[in-house]
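Same chain as my last thread, 214 residues:
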Amino acid sequence: MSINFKKSNHQAFEPHRELTTLFPSTVFSMHYGDADWNSKKQVQKALDIEYHPKAQNLQSVNTYVLDLPEWSSLKETIETELDLITKDYYQNDDIKLRITQSWVNVNEDGDEHLTHYHINSILSGTVYLQTADDDGILFSDNKHSNLGNISIIKDGRIPIVKHPVKTGDIVIFESNQRHGVERTQRKQKRVSIAFNTFVEGVLGNAEGLTELRL
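reply #2:
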């Protein structure tokens, strides 16, 4: 990618300049289509549980919904995907990512979910039981988050990417990746289950005095 900076008064020629982006954020996406866990019956079960009074959107009072019997099939599906990620992407057979907390989010017409990230988690994810037209999850550039750094982005316009989602999708990403949901008109409710994970197993090694058994 080429960038044209203003020519310096101290140079008689225009140098070649390049911009290189290193180490992009990783987002894992899976689509399950008409799975048993995103049937109309399961969507209704998600809508029937208790929710906190609405702030930005509706969030379930229960923050361990994937431990409920009615979501056992979905939990097994997510655990299978997490195992594939640790083995194929991280190439580590000594650890397992287990689901910690999980909760239901419901976005109705005009609802939003401000950009945020999750602490005390390795990978986080969202399962889409029901989506609206042109739905998506927003990911923002962590480099310009204003957390511990001064942003030089004009007017605070942080770079944002909309990752499209549809019913039956599972999206998993690094927990420190900032994400949110835009305010938009929705003809039907957006219903999703979010989750966090943490590692169990052995990290590091005893010889290097870095071993951590979890």
